[in-house]
Amino acid sequence: MTGDRPHSAQLTFEYPSPASAATVARSVRPELGEIDSDRASASVDRTADTVTVTVDAADLTALRAGLTTWTTLIEVAEAVD
């Protein structure tokens, strides 16, 4: 969370194996920076079998939109995996 983006949320996704988590993380990472806006940004981290997406936003509307976007991106990556 940064000063100009006081709202933050984390989405945590657990997978059956580190390989599955790596595939999902690798699939969504290219979107970082591409869909960031003046009001929201995101980061993607992976530790073993867990992928964590952190969304930081300037307001609650941007936070909700960011969470919806990243949840959808993860769902698509999971469907392909």
Any descriptors?
alpha+beta, three-stranded antiparallel β-sheet, TATA-Binding Protein, 3 strands, 81 residues, 40% helix, 30% strand
Give a structural overview.
The chain is of the alpha+beta class and 81 residues long. The protein has one domain: 2-Layer Sandwich (TATA-Binding Protein). The chain contains two helices and three strands; from the N terminus they run βαββα. Strands 1-3-2 form a three-stranded antiparallel sheet. A hairpin with a 2-residue loop joins strand 2 and strand 3 (50-57). The longest helix has 21 residues, at 60-80. It starts with 6 loop residues before the first strand and ends with a helix.
Summarize the structure in short.
The chain has 81 residues and is an alpha+beta fold.
The low-confidence parts are none
CATH architecture name:
2-Layer Sandwich
Please report the number of helical segments.
2
Spatial strand arrangement across the major sheet: 1-3-2
Topology diagram in text:
Blueprint: E1 7-14, H1 18-28, E2 40-47, E3 50-57, H2 60-80
Antiparallel strand pairs: 1-3, 2-3
Helix pairs in contact: 1-2
